[in-house]
Design brief:
Helix content is 72%, strand content 0%. It is mainly α. The longest helix is centred in the middle third of the chain and has 25 residues, at 97-121.
Length: 169
């Protein structure tokens, strides 16, 4: 049932172009033909349903070699996003700041935990999670900057490497 709930929300957000902010639990339950108590049995609210879905969509990203993800993050992301349902979701909700912000927040959280493992595996110096957050924020900052810079993924990986060479040695 959890998967059906996610699939229906995903369809609403991507195919039907309903803004996440406009989706109600009642509306979702009506489309699924379930009582709202069934929804709440599985999820606390629609935010937790979206979070669960985003984590599912990111599974393939975390299958990419960790060293690749943190030494060539833009090439890795480019491979992941080709045909990705996460990209479909992001594009479908680009005009809904609430959805976009949640996806970014959860992606950063997962990537930061992953970066902490990367740092430990490579014996890089770390300051109580700060280094992991710095790596991830650098990826997101460069990505945001690139919306107007229009660099290739290879150029972005080089820029990232230049900015993080004091951390990743």
């Amino acid at each position: 049932m959890k998967e059906k709930q996610w699939q229906e929300l995903f369809k609403m957000l991507t195919e039907d172009k309903v803004k996440y902010s406009d989706v109600s639990i009642r509306q979702l339950c009506e489309r699924l033909g379930i009582h709202h108590t069934t929804f709440y049995y599985h999820f606390e609210d629609k935010e937790m349903l979206l979070k669960n879905g985003v984590e599912l969509l990111l599974k393939d990203y975390f299958k990419i070699d960790r060293d690749e993800r943190f030494t060539k993050p833009f090439s890795s992301s480019d491979i992941f996003y080709q045909g990705s349902d996460l990209l479909t979701l992001i594009e479908g909700q680009r005009y809904d700041d609430a959805c976009s912000n949640l996806i970014s927040k959860w992606s950063k959280d997962l990537m930061t935990r992953d970066a902490e493992v990367f740092i430990k595996e490579n014996d890089f110096e770390s300051r109580e999670g700060l280094t992991a957050r710095q790596l991830v924020e650098t990826i997101f900052t460069i990505s945001d900057w690139n919306e107007t810079a229009n660099k290739t993924v290879e150029e972005l990986d080089t820029i990232y490497s230049d900015y993080t060479k004091m951390i990743i040695k």
